[in-house]
Design a protein that fits this description.
With 229 residues, this protein is an alpha/beta fold. The protein has a single domain (5-212), classed as P-loop containing nucleotide triphosphate hydrolases (Rossmann fold). 48% of the residues lie in helices and 17% in strands. It contains nine helices and eight strands. The protein has helices at residues 16-27, 34-47, 55-63, 92-102, 105-121, 131-135, 149-162, 169-185, 207-216, and strands at 5-9, 30-33, 67-72, 75-80, 83-84, 124-128, 141-146, 198-201. A five-stranded parallel sheet has the order 2-6-1-7-8, sandwiched between helices. The protein has a three-stranded antiparallel sheet with strand order 3-4-5, with helices on one face. β4 and β5 (83-84) form a beta hairpin. α2 (34-47) packs across α4. The two termini are 18 Å apart. The chain binds cytidine-5'-monophosphate. Cytidine-5'-monophosphate binds at residues 12, 34-35, 38-39, 98-99, 102, 128-130, 179, 183.
């Protein structure tokens, strides 16, 4: 039997990361943040001064890039070509430019391969935009997390504050709206709510409420026993 996959898709700030990490930890599954992979490639392109219009160069760059997602207890890190970039990939500059990388099909194919690879050895909770539609159309549970844009901007503002970055909430709201529009409207792997995904609006829900709701959707009889990662 294939390893278990919980696919969590949704727009920025819907609470995917927070909720996915808690669920992974409760079930003993591996947590995989696919947005971090797109961000890591974007950061590399920025650092190497590659023009985002030059798809061929970006594809070559992606082929030669090593991305590792690591975890120690409840801390998650991102390693790009052997260097830790966990915080660097979260800047507004990277957030705004990721759509260039995310709309190049050969780059997505490289990342899909890496993402699918995790299932060979692990049961996983994977979050992103196209997990249920492209990465694992056969995921045992598909969830689409959403929230109103004002609430999502507030969450992003607080998240940045925690990282020591003072943001402007209005600016953040605009940036999130623009990013979502691009993610939903692009022709390659757009963010969509699939008919077989469970839709959860988290605007007025607390994190434990969202976690409980997702856990209640799991088919208990098919759930693997908790394993060490
Ligand atoms: O999840 P996060 O907000 O970190 O993702 C950053 C960007 O990466 C998204 O706005 C989207 O353009 C892209 N992305 C994607 N497909 C995924 C995950 C992220 O296109 N599975």
């Amino acid at each position: 039997m294939k390893n278990f996959v919980i696919a969590i898709d949704g727009p920025a700030g819907a609470g995917k990361s927070t909720v996915a990490k808690i669920i992974a930890s409760k079930l003993g599954f591996l947590y995989v943040d696919t947005g971090a992979m797109y961000r890591a490639l974007t950061l590399k392109a920025i650092k190497e001064h590659l023009p985002f219009a030059n798809e061929q160069k970006l594809i070559e760059m992606a082929r030669e890039t090593e991305i590792e997602l690591c975890q120690k207890d409840d801390k998650y890190g991102v390693i790009l070509d052997k260097k830790i970039v966990t915080d660097e990939i979260r800047t507004e500059e990277v957030s705004k430019a990721t759509h260039f990388i995310a709309s190049i099909l050969p780059i997505r194919e490289i990342l899909w391969k890496m993402q699918r690879g995790y299932r060979k050895k692990h049961n996983i909770v994977m979050e992103g935009r196209d997990i249920g539609s492209k990465v694992f159309p056969d995921a045992q549970l598909k969830v689409f997390l959403d929230a109103g844009v004002k609430e999502r901007a507030k969450r992003r503002y607080l998240q940045l504050k925690e990282m020591g970055v003072e943001g402007n909430i209005k600016e953040i709201e605009k940036e999130i709206e623009l990013r979502d529009r691009k993610d939903r409207q692009r022709s390659i792997s757009p963010l969509i709510k699939l008919p077989d995904a469970i839709y959860i609006d988290t605007t007025d829900l607390t994190i434990p409420q969202v976690v409980d709701k997702i856990l209640s959707l799991l088919p208990v009889e098919n759930l693997p026993a908790k394993t060490e990662k």
